[in-house]
């Protein structure tokens, strides 16, 4: 899913599932979930790098799969 949202001033939150030692760091912008119904994501180690945007349904499915251990670590 692509978007033309301006994320320059977005507030980002690190996922509670992100690794605490500096690796595996996923951040999302909750304000865009509320205002646009999409979930912007980025790598916290590259805050000025690329972002991806997912539908809320897609993000929910991904989070459920992580919680259920459907991905190899």
Short recap of the structure:
The chain has two helices and four strands, in the order ββαββα. The protein has helices at 30-36, 56-67, and strands at residues 13-14, 26-28, 38-43, 51-55. InterPro entries: DUF397 (IPR007278).
Structural descriptors:
single chain; alpha+beta; 73 residues; four-stranded antiparallel beta sheet; 2 helices
Commentary on this structure:
The chain has 73 residues and is an alpha+beta fold. The protein has one domain (13-68). Helix content is 26%, strand content 22%. The chain has 2 helices and 4 strands; from the N terminus they run E-E-H-E-E-H. It has helices at residues 30-36, 56-67, and strands at residues 13-14, 26-28, 38-43, 51-55. The protein has a 4-stranded antiparallel β-sheet. A hairpin with a 7-residue loop joins strand 3 and strand 4 (51-55). The longest helix is centred in the C-terminal third of the chain and has 12 residues, at 56-67. The radius of gyration is 12 Å and the shape is globular. 8% of the residues are buried.
Give the arrangement of secondary structure elements.
Blueprint: E1 13-14, E2 26-28, H1 30-36, E3 38-43, E4 51-55, H2 56-67
Antiparallel strand pairs: 1-2, 2-3, 3-4
Task: Give the terminus-to-terminus CA distance.
Answer: 25 Å
Please bin the fraction of helical residues.
Answer: 25-40%
Structural class: alpha+beta
User: Major sheet: size, sense and barrel closure?
Assistant: 4 strands, antiparallel
Walk across the major sheet and give the strand order.
Answer: 1-2-3-4
Number of domains: 1
Mean pLDDT: 81
Q: Say how many strands there are.
A: 4
Radius of gyration: 12 Å
Tally of contiguous helical segments: 2
Order of helices and strands: EEHEEH
- Principal-axes geometry comes out as globular
- DSSP strand (E) fraction? 15-25%
Provide the low-confidence segments as ranges: none
